[in-house]
Amino acid sequence: MSTAALPVDFLQALAEGFPSDFLTREPDELKEYGRDWTKVYAPAPSAVALPRTTDEVSRLLALCHRHGVAVVPSGGRTGLAGGAVAAKGEVVLSLQRMSRMGPVDLLGNTVRVQAGAVTEAVHRHCAEHGLTWPVDFASKGSSTVGGNIATNAGGVKVIRYGLTRQWVLGLQVVTADGTVLELNGALEKNNTGLDLRQLFIGSEGTLGVITEATLKLTQLPGRQDVFLFAVPDVAAVLRLFRDARQQTTFLISAYEFFTDRCLARVQRHRKLRSPFEAGSGCYVLLEAESRDAAAVEAWLGSLFERGLVTDGTQAQSATQAAELWALRESISESLSATGLPHKNDISLPVAGLEAFCAELESVFSARYPGWEICLFGHIGDGNLHVNVMKPDEMDKAEFLAHTKGADPTMFELVRKHAGSISAEHGVGLLKKDYLGYSRSEAELALLRVLKRTLDPRGVLNPGKILDA
Ligand code: ZN
User: Fold this and answer.
1) What CATH number does domain 110-219 carry, 3.30.465.10, 3.40.50.12780, 3.40.50.150, 3.90.1170.50?
2) What is the Cα–Cα distance from 142 to 147, expressed in whole angstroms?
3) What is the 34 CA–ligand 1 centroid distance (Å)?
4) Reported pTM
5) How far is the CA of 425 from the centre of ligand 1 (A)?
6) What is the pLDDT of residue 1?
């Protein structure tokens, strides 16, 4: 559908019933709002709608439903699976003007916010009261609450707090025909049958548009120690994890790993310094919450004695902690800035990671002999980000064709080890064709029934997750 193909009576209804700045069709804005961080799809929306209220969202969706106009709901567009891409003349429904945050409820430990509130702004808002919404990742400065919930976002604190799903009490959702649903309010307990919230959390905008949410908050963590360790290989990363998990004197709030190749790209792009003189195969960033500094110190000393690490450093200040975190959190942007990565986001049961990684090596050497592979991720959650880098001499089309051809081999291995082909990035357009590696035929059939029931005309983010 091109811009001209939007129905005339649809455009007329928009012009009559909405503020004059409700819709934009500026070419630059179409390009900007039509893409997310995936960057492999060419954006081509027909228009961008920028509502200020739930009522406007509801009336817009009712109109789109009536006229059969496809809508792509849009938050901070930091997704990596193409879930927010509008490449087929859709109308982008951006929630960015709906970013109001209500007062923090200090008795219930909740806050009600509009979907367009930026993650980091919510953190700041709650921190004034010693509280936090513990959904945290590198793109927190741009990602929004609505997008986080619609994609059930993961991130660097899942090992401690779980996924976004666990931190949502209430949802206001507008369904395809414009119906406004208020789901669960601010209730911690509500056992009145099926929990409809969960239908929309992780639905990537295919079943409804999230307009407001009541977020569950928790206390800001106390003393946090940040460590960076050097270890030879992935097996050693997992040995150290096993040991850290068995400690009773601290709680792990992040256990992240990356390989030397990731570090080299970060150093090249961000000019950051490694705290270690000698290189090492893998690095582990551990963040731990503890009330007992001496016990942590003793554990740290024992790691060297027991040969669990080859080098290690502990941040001595908030600045140093931020510097260590920057090495990990700059990886994604550094890989894209210094080359062309083919990204995959997979998860395995933590207990099966070692066997999986050993077999993954043989897939790499058969499919990508001598190519640069940058492996990192939230290994404490069993989540690996696999990045195959385009060899310099290879052209882009050949590279993309080759990696696409090789993906099924890895997904087959993921299935064999009872993992998931998308750990935290979602399905969007990128993983749609491969959903069968992680969901059964019976599950897919049920998902299609739900989609057709909630969106009978197929106007909500069509073609994402699955083809109805
Ligand atoms: Zn991640």
Assistant:
1) 3.30.465.10
2) 10
3) 23
4) 0.93
5) 8
6) 43
